Amino acid sequence: MAATRACLVALVVALTFLFMEGRATAARMSAGNLVQRRQEVRSLLRRLNKPPVASIQSPDGDIIDCVHIIEQPAFDHLLLKNHTIQMYPSYNPKGMQHHSNITPHLITQIWHQNGKCPEHTIPIRRTKEEHVLRASSVRRFGTKMPRSIPLVNPINDTNTPNILRGHQYAAASARYDKCYGSKGTFNMWKPAIARANDFSLTQLWITAGSYNGNNLNTIEVGWQVYPNLYGDSNTRLFIYWTRDAYQTTGCYNLLCSGFIQTSNQITIGGSISPTSTYGGTQYDIDILVWKDRAGGNWWLQVGGYNDGYWPSYIFSDLAHSASAIMWGGEIFSPDAGQTSTHMGSGHFPNEGFGKASHIKNIQVVNSSNCLNPPSDVGLITERNNCYNVQTGNYGDWGTYIYYGGPGNNPNCP
């Protein structure tokens, strides 16, 4: 009996030793992983944060670095090493003017309150260590995860299994053999975000290719509220691009090389103020993306400023033309169950002006470089009791949509 007890004691001691040793090993590995991750983060920050000519502390907590135009992150791209900057588009689309009896209100970015960037520089929101550490990995920072885009015909598309999981849309779409851009006036809101990893956005998508073969090309522009990316709940201007269905290329804003900025007025990724209030003052911003038929680049104009361009040769299919354009809202929530994150104003389209969010004066650039109303507009929505979309055409609003919703509600459990 004594021998048995001695064996049991020895076994317990041995198991305790192995357990403690395992914990110590795990702790060493965890500490080593943390050190490696921080080293990767600092390496990324050195690449992203170029030496500024001047820096501006924004009231919202951002630091805006005024970086010389030839030092911007775009030129880290292998295809852009010897690129000559095109400071202005060769041609603007014809028919850009529109008249409205609703007085527009000036949209500004919050950092403008404390200064402006000098000529020959561009404003870049400084990336901080805490921004990167919120990402699932350093490699995935600033990219869409999971990869997603609304489908023009989302029903029974066998090429995209599970891609849209966690994403909900209320959008309009139009298909073309060839088209060359789009313009719209976007109503600005600050939607409520229910969960830490949720986002809510409103944008236009210019696309070519498809998920099949991983050759989907997109240019995406709009506004979003995305706490996990930005660290706050401000409404922010954003851009995105990809040439391989979000597999390895593309990113938000200037967090990878590709988009070449030319303006010192607009910070891509910067907060926008003011935003609309329910039943109160409404604020809109014009967004135009079009292919410069002379230079071939895809230009971005925001609020009347030519902000920069995507060189055509960073794309495959979009190097030539687009085949589909979409406008509307998107919600992403990675958690199980229906989120109550708002889309747009958080109210349904049938509430109308001043209450539901809208995009008006929707136009498409054709092969003659003219802006025209879209044709055969279709609607995309999966759960219209959560988020919905309506379209119409009226007077000086032209083609428009109302869209949005509250998410979780008694009719959307």
Automatic annotation (TrEMBL):
Swiss-Prot/TrEMBL keywords: Signal
Regions crossing the membrane: none
InterPro entries (UniProt xref): Glutamic_endopeptidase, Neprosin, Neprosin_propep
Organism domain of life: Eukaryota
RNA-binding among keywords: no
Neprosin PEP catalytic domain: residues covered: 161-413
Cleavable signal peptide: 1-26
Keyword Signal: yes
PANTHER family to which the protein is assigned, alphabetical: NEPROSIN DOMAIN-CONTAINING PROTEIN, PROTEIN, PUTATIVE (DUF239)-RELATED-RELATED
Full protein name: Neprosin PEP catalytic domain-containing protein
